[in-house]
Amino acid sequence: MILLVLALTLNLLLAGPAAAGSPLLVERARALAENVLGEGQVRALRAVDGGTQLFIRWESPTFRRTNSVATSRDLLYGEAVLATNAILGALPEVARIRFTILESG
User: Fold this and answer.
1) Helical H runs in the chain?
2) Contact 49, 24 (CB under 8 A)
3) Which residues are bridge partners to 7 per DSSP?
4) pLDDT of 61-84, one tens digit each?
5) pLDDT tens for residues 15-63?
6) Would you say the pTM of this structure is higher than 0.85?
7) Is the pLDDT of residue 3 over 80?
8) Alpha-carbon torsion 100, 76, 27, 85, what sign?
9) Which of 27, 65, 89, 100 has the fewest CB atoms within 10 Å, i.e. is most exposed?
10) What 3-state class would DSSP assign to 101?
11) Tens digits of per-residue pLDDT, 4-17?
12) Nearest to 11 by CA among 74, 92, 88, 68
């Protein structure tokens, strides 16, 4: 019984602020995305709808003008899947991510 109360309390402490779309949620999402994309690649990140939706803008670490269209599409798709899955897998309160990928330069 004590373990159940402790687990519920810990869950509320960890999930409570993030569910409200707090700066903690934004920083956790940024860290998760930058683990995939590279440090400093996320240019903007904003939580809306109480933290259930994120808007992210990042600079692509894989895009090169010299790549073919097919290669660029595959690389951009890959980084989008990896970054969004990292966030969605770790932050269950996030239901939707809308993103913009910028060309580095």
Assistant:
1) 2-19, 23-37, 69-90
2) no
3) none
4) 999 999 999 999 999 999 999 999
5) 444 444 579 999 999 999 999 999 999 999 999 999 999 999 999 999 9
6) no
7) no
8) positive
9) 65
10) strand
11) 333 433 343 444 44
12) 92
Tell me how far apart the alpha carbons of residues 55 and 84 are, in angstroms, rounded to a whole number.
11
Q: What is the largest CA-CA distance in the chain?
A: 61
Structure tokens at 70: 């097919």
Assign 42 to helix, strand or coil. strand
- Alpha carbon of residue 103 to chain centroid: 18
What percentage of the chain's residues is helix, strand, coil (to nearest 5)? 55, 20, 25
Is 34:42 a contact under the CB 8 Å cutoff?
yes
